[in-house]
Design goal:
Layout lengths: L5 H5 L5 H4 L8 H34 L2 H23 L6 H30 L3 H29 L4 H55 L6 H37 L3 E6 L4 E5 L18 E4 L2 E5 L3 H14 L5 E6 L4 H6 L7 E6 L2 H9 L1 H7 L8 E5 L2 H7 L10 E7 L14 H9 L1 E10 L7 H12 L4 E11 L26 E10 L18 H12 L19
Parallel strand pairs: 5-6, 5-8, 6-7, 8-9
Antiparallel strand pairs: 1-2, 2-3, 3-4, 9-11, 10-11
Helix pairs in contact: 3-4, 3-5, 3-6, 3-7, 4-6, 5-6, 5-7, 5-8, 7-8, 11-12
């Protein structure tokens, strides 16, 4: 029989230093506790870096599902690479861990600022997103093997017990980091400063562990090198914190131009207002200032040059097709759809359900926006509710919350192609809305560009029809083809054959779906204002749309969203 080597009997593999007990300034039990505390802190910081990248990429690029998938999959892959690379550092685990934490603190802490800079000045963030995910993943992956070596050098124990303790601290830290990001860091510090502060905490924790607890394992040269590296990282992160506000202003100017005059983080989204310094509203705007533009999370939602045409096309066909004493607006916190609704004398009440109180506050107080919406939210007939539209509709079935049916429901929500909005274009959402429709009631939906995203547009139509409503889709000319924007944008496409010519550049198109229990009719109401949208224009809009219908599309549901297909 051949005897196994001694290392196999003892369960220890690796270079001699890995097996040497550490010379600590504290008892082994306390030293082990301090290592686990650092594991906890590093895990929390690592998860914050991941969530920061996902959140910022979703804001800059859109499509949160894709961005989360890219970040997480690249990071997990990179963590495996980092774990393999860390094997070469186990012989000098303390120095290796100190270097890894300094690098991770610098890269992770500055990642949000660097990613935003790539987006603002180079109009490119996807490649930077992948690069940061890869580097951060490699550094996070290198932590666990090095920490495992350090904790075993503090006090020997069986491998299973050491792994259990290490992972327990790691998972609890990840929980704290995951909760701290949305509930503490993001609302109180914002994305840029939050990442920099996280990097600072990461650097202090890693540096303190190595430079104090394991200082006797370090050569004089290694100690000074780590001390200088950590001090330099802290100085860079502190400089980033001090420059975060002017950097953000400069980046915002690069994205929105010098006209950006309001920028607030509401807790739900970033709201930016540009322009709007002239007088008047819509077509009647006067003055030399640029038109007002409202951006939500970087996406254009309102342009003073074209919002009249958009809101007239959204509101008037539904209002003119039957009774309209009671109206429900889902979204529309800017007050512009409400302005058009209040032009009808027969309107008795308007309920607005808007998620973001910050948008409502600006719609009531900002001089440019109130000039544009005509102070519509201050009208005594208007009742504003701050709530998620889906949850509010669902609560109408609860005793004590039931309400009388509505003659018109206006769904003035972001494009269905934005991942966060898909539940507001689902079969379940339209089913809830249908319950609140009066017998002759109408539902109108902003359905996105009908040509550039034709499949998504006709999926909205199919989803509305799936809840038993008859639909009449239509499109109206929007902004010229030079307009580029991911939300409420018109198609940057040539005019379809047969469309009437209009003055100015070839327009794009906004898409809408009008629905009712019986097929809705298009025509003027007795109390209608001077017709902003003529019957001939609507007829042309309907005919142009029906020619391009995509048949046989399935409905979009909560469990099977179809707008990303």
């Amino acid at each position: 029989m051949i005897d196994p080597p001694e290392s196999a009997l003892t369960g220890t593999l690796g270079p001699p230093e890995v097996m040497t007990p550490a010379r600590l300034p504290v008892p082994a039990g306390l030293g082990r506790l301090l290592v686990l505390c650092v594991v906890f802190v590093c895990a929390a910081c690592g998860l914050v870096y991941e969530l920061e990248l996902v959140a910022l990429a979703t804001y800059l690029v859109g499509d949160s599902v894709t961005q989360a998938s890219v970040v997480l999959s690249v990071m997990v892959f990179a963590m495996g690479i980092g774990a393999l690379l860390a094997k070469r550092l186990r012989c000098r685990a303390a120095v290796g861990f100190g270097a890894v934490e300094a690098g991770l603190a610098l890269v992770g802490g500055s990642s949000a600022m660097a990613l935003y800079a790539c987006f603002a000045w180079f109009a490119q963030s996807r490649s930077a997103l992948v690069a940061f995910s890869l580097v951060i993943g490699v550094l996070i992956g290198a932590e666990v093997p090095l920490l495992m070596t350090l904790i075993q050098r503090v006090r020997r124990q069986d491998a299973g017990g050491a792994v259990a303790d290490l992972f327990a601290a790691d998972y609890v830290g990840a929980l704290v980091g995951g909760l701290a990001f949305p509930f503490l860091l993001l609302p109180s510090l914002g994305q840029l400063t939050g990442a920099l502060v996280t990097g600072t905490v990461n650097d202090v924790a890693g540096g303190a562990l190595v430079l104090w607890l394991f200082r006797r394992d370090l050569s004089r040269r290694a100690r000074w090198s780590l001390l200088v590296a950590n001090a330099l990282v802290l100085a860079l992160l502190a400089t980033g914190v001090l420059l975060a506000a002017p950097f953000e202003r400069a980046a915002r100017r690069a994205v929105y131009g010098s006209a950006a005059r309001v920028a607030v983080q509401t807790g739900i989204q970033e709201v930016v207002l540009t322009g709007g310094t002239g007088t008047g509203a819509g077509r009647e705007r006067k003055g030399s200032g640029p038109p007002l533009e409202l951006y939500l999370d970087g996406r254009l939602r309102v342009s003073g040059d074209t919002e009249c045409r958009y809101h007239e096309a959204l509101v008037h066909p539904a209002m003119a097709a039957g009774p309209h004493a009671r109206v429900l607006v889902l979204g529309g916190g800017d007050g512009l759809a409400v302005r058009e609704i209040l032009r009808y004398r027969a309107v008795r009440s308007v309920t607005v359900v808007e998620l973001d109180p910050g948008v409502l506050r600006l719609a009531r107080t900002d001089p440019g926006l109130t000039r544009l919406n005509g102070h519509s939210l201050g009208d005594p007939r208007v009742h504003v509710v701050t709530a998620d539209a889906f949850d509010w509709l669902r609560d109408r079935d609860v005793p004590g919350h039931r309400t009388a049916p509505y003659d018109v429901i206006v769904s003035d929500l972001p494009d269905p192609g934005i991942t966060a909005s898909t539940k507001l274009y689902s079969q379940e959402f339209y089913g809830l809305a249908t319950r609140l429709l009066a017998d002759r009631g109408r539902l109108v939906v902003h359905a996105g560009p009908p040509v550039a995203r034709a499949r998504a547009y006709w999926t909205v139509d199919a989803t509305v029809r799936s809840v038993g409503l008859a639909t009449d889709p239509y499109r109206m000319p929007g902004r010229p083809a030079s307009f580029l924007g991911p939300d409420r944008s018109a198609d940057p496409t040539p005019r379809p054959t047969g469309e009437p010519l209009t003055a100015g550049p070839s327009p794009g198109y906004w898409g809408f779906v009008l629905a009712a229990r019986q097929r809705p009719r298009f025509g003027p109401a007795p109390d209608a204002p001077p017709p902003p949208v003529t019957r001939e224009a609507l007829r042309a809009a309907r005919h142009g749309d029906l020619r391009d219908r995509i048949p046989g599309l399935p409905a979009s549901t909560l469990m099977r969203p179809r707008y990303q297909d």
